[in-house]
Amino acid sequence: MASNAAIHRVELNVADMDRHYYADHALTVARHPSETEERMMVRILAHALWSHERLEFGRGLGVAEEPDLWQRDLTGRIERWIDVGLPDARRIKQAIGQSDQVTVLAFGGRAVELWWKEVQGELPKGRALTVVEISPDTTEALTRLCQRTMNIQFMVQEGERWLALGDERFLVPLTWRLGVPAAV
Q1: What's the mean pLDDT in 78-96?
Q2: In what order do the strands lie in the sheet with 149-157?
Q3: What is the C-alpha to C-alpha distance for residues 129 and 30, in angstroms, rounded to an integer?
Q4: Which pLDDT does position 179 carry in this prediction?
Q5: Mean pLDDT value across residues 63-92
Q6: In the predicted model, what is the mean pLDDT of residues 53-77?
Q7: What is the DSSP string of 114-139?
Q8: Would you say the C-alpha torsion 62, 183, 111, 147 has a positive or negative sign?
Q9: 10 Å Cβ neighbour count for 71?
Q10: What does pLDDT average to over the chain?
Q11: Which CATH fold topology does 6-183 show?
């Protein structure tokens, strides 16, 4: 973990009825001093969306050769590489070369549209890459609910994703830029 990182403890309960995945994850999330609460909460949401027993956080912003999250098989081969934010096309292509599946969870409001216009023509089409956008309303709600200790309930049923934290519960709409919704 990075020095001077803010440590957040998260109990994440996932009930994904579409994938038949049900699990509790005890997460320790280090927020780098230069990372915003919004970005950290999107990383936690990414963990909920693509939860798996071997999904783990990368070492953080200071380690460019690692994703924000990754799922590796028992030999260390990268099965899923997940970046949050707006990575450049070169980084995405490198990730595709290193893993079976690459997922980008884009956020940033209007900046997402500008980024997408810039990178979409450079990205390979195919099953190995999924680009999903999260709305500014969702990231604002996540940021508002950020605490040092959180108990998050995440449920997926018939394509709808719900997140509950404290007394708040809200729908998590996603927009697919590339790939198909079944990838989540």
Answers
A1: 95
A2: 21-31, 6-16, 149-157, 160-165, 168-171
A3: 27
A4: 86
A5: 94
A6: 89
A7: HHHHHHGGGSPPSTTEEEEEE-HHHH
A8: negative
A9: 21
A10: 93
A11: Restriction endonuclease-like alpha-beta roll fold (3.10.640)
